[in-house]
Write a structure and sequence with these properties.
Strand content: 25-35%
Shape: globular
Number of domains: 2
Radius of gyration: 24 Å
Number of helices: 4
């Protein structure tokens, strides 16, 4: 019998992480990342406008401003121990692989958290899918069928942002991947009447009703309440969960993110190797308490 030989390939198939490019489309407050809380002034109502005033003196009013605040949180990856024996025995660079995985995992989690923080709430900002029944697009733990997304659902969100007086430029719609392909199964959407050229380098796949459309495997998950409630990242899944899409104009959402900091404690004698970990500070918010400039599209159970 021939001698059985072992071989290590000099590269490793890395873990793949969800795209979080949509984060950079919001208002960047990262200069404030060293602080625990970001305070955002909210302008109060102006005085009434009078045409052809005939009575004097005019009544003097004051503008009462308020504020919106959001806190920053720290996210860290559990330390990884790499022994010197491992580094000697493997031909690929395990240290680089571990650090890349730390960075990828933190970036993915930040994207998940920002999608949740930017997810619209309230009856005026949440829309429901209205297409035909389909089981192709379901939240991770969901079962059954949901009504599919249609271009008319997207139109309703665009109309909402129009009525909010949100600028036409800088509008984004982030769709769960399954809902994206469900929407563009509509053959009319591949015509020039609906689609425009978009730069995939910036993460934008196409455009529809003024929205720059982006996609990631999961955006938000909502529960089955009459007025759907978005579920926090890591919350237990349910068979009745619904996928949710995120629509916003860039001036109405914000994020604050620090650099991903890597910690290394090398050549630890008691570990016969080195210890690596990483962390990042991050926060974000919808910038208006009245939910202007944002919308959510949530699946409807069929």
């Amino acid at each position: 019998m021939a001698l059985q030989k072992e071989i290590w390939i000099d590269s490793i198939q890395e873990v793949l992480y969800r795209n979080s490019a949509f984060i950079q489309k919001g208002t960047n407050h990262s200069e404030f990342v060293s602080n625990k809380t970001v305070h955002l002034p909210q302008a109060g109502a102006l005085g009434a406008i009078t045409k052809d005033r005939s009575s004097f003196p005019a009544t003097i009013a004051q503008r009462t401003d308020s504020e919106l605040t959001y806190n920053l949180s720290s996210f860290d990856v559990a330390p990884i121990h790499i022994t010197d024996v491992e580094e000697l025995q493997t031909s690929y660079n395990k240290r680089v692989s571990v650090l890349n995985s730390h960075t990828g995992a933190l970036s993915e989690r930040i994207g998940d958290e920002l999608a949740y923080l930017w997810g619209a709430t309230g009856s005026d900002a949440i829309f429901r899918t209205s297409g035909s029944a389909s089981s192709d697009a379901l939240a991770p733990s969901a079962t059954g069928t949901r009504f599919a997304i249609t271009k008319d659902d997207v139109r309703k969100m665009a109309k909402k942002l129009d009525k909010d007086n949100a600028p036409m430029n800088g509008r984004f719609l982030v769709l769960p991947t399954d809902m994206y392909y469900q929407l563009f199964a509509d053959s009319t959407l591949v015509s020039r009447d609906y689609m425009e050229r978009a730069s995939q380098e910036s993460g934008v796949l196409t455009q529809l009703y003024g929205f720059n459309i982006m996609a990631r495997p999961v955006v938000n998950v909502y529960d089955d309440s009459a007025l759907p409630v978005k579920k926090a990242v890591g919350a237990a899944g349910a068979a009745t969960d619904h996928l949710g899409a995120l629509a916003f104009q860039m001036d109405y959402v914000s994020f604050a993110q620090g650099d991903i900091k890597v910690f290394a404690d090398e050549n630890k004698p008691e570990y016969y190797g080195s210890i690596f970990s990483a962390m990042v500070m991050m926060g974000g918010s919808i910038l208006r308490t009245d939910q202007k400039g944002v919308a959510a599209l949530v699946q409807t159970e069929a």
